[in-house]
Amino acid sequence: MLSKREKLSNPTTRYYTSRFPTILERELLEAPYLLRPFHSDDLSSVIEINRVCLPENYSPYFFMEVYKSCPEAFIVAEKERKVAGYIMCRLEFGFSDVRRFRMVRKGHVVSVAVMPDFRRQGIGKELVLAAMKALELHGAEECFLEVRTANEDAVRLYKNMGFDTSRVATHYYHDGADAYVMTIKLPHNPPVN
Ligand SMILES: CC(C)(COP(=O)(O)OP(=O)(O)OC[C@H]1O[C@@H](n2cnc3c(N)ncnc32)[C@H](O)[C@@H]1OP(=O)(O)O)[C@@H](O)C(=O)NCCC(=O)NCCS
Description:
By secondary structure, the protein is of the alpha+beta class.
C-alpha cells in the first residue's frame, strides 16, 4: 500500500517502485508524467538531456557507476513516452553539513535536469522528492547538492523545497564558477497542501 504521506505528497505524478507495481501500473496510465527507476536502455536519453541542459557532461561509464552506487536514486521522468528528465545520486559517508562534528550517511545529488520543453510543470521538484525518499530508505540522514551560484531557477527550486546553503565552494566548476553547497535534513516531510 502507498502510505498516506506518499499519496498526499504528490497528487499528479506516480512513482513506480518494484514494491508497489500493481497499484501504480493502473495509476500510471492517468498520470501526466511518470517517474520510474532508470534502466540501462535510458542511458542515451539521459546523456542527451545532460548534454542539452548542463555544462557538466559525463562519460557513459560515469553514469553507470553512479547508477550502481544507488540504483533506486537514479530516476527518470517520462512524458509523452519520452524521457523528459532525470536525477542521479550517490550515497556517501562524511561530516554532516547540518549537525556539527557528526559523521553521517549522506545522499549526494550528482546531477538533475529536465528538458527545456518540459520545465515548470513540477517534474524537477518531484524528481528531487523521489530521490530523497530513495536515499532516506538507504539510511541517508541528509541530502546535499552543488549548484552554480548563478543558476537562479535551480537555487530557487531547492530553497523552496527546504534546502539551506551550507557554504560556497569557490571555483568549484571547471570554468571557475562558484557553487552553493545546499543541504536538507532527511527524512524530508513536505507540507501537505
Ligand atoms: C532546475 C530544473 C531541474 C528544474 O526543473 P523543473 O521541472 O522546471 O522544476 P519544477 O517545475 O519542479 O519547478 C520549477 C518552477 O516551476 C514552477 N511550477 C511547477 N509546476 C508548475 C505548473 N504546473 N505551472 C507553472 N509553474 C509551475 C515551480 O513552482 C517552480 O517555480 P519557481 O522556482 O519560480 O518558484 C530545470 O530548470 C533544469 O533542468 N535546469 C537546467 C539544468 C540544471 O540547472 N540542473 C540543476 C543543476 S544543480
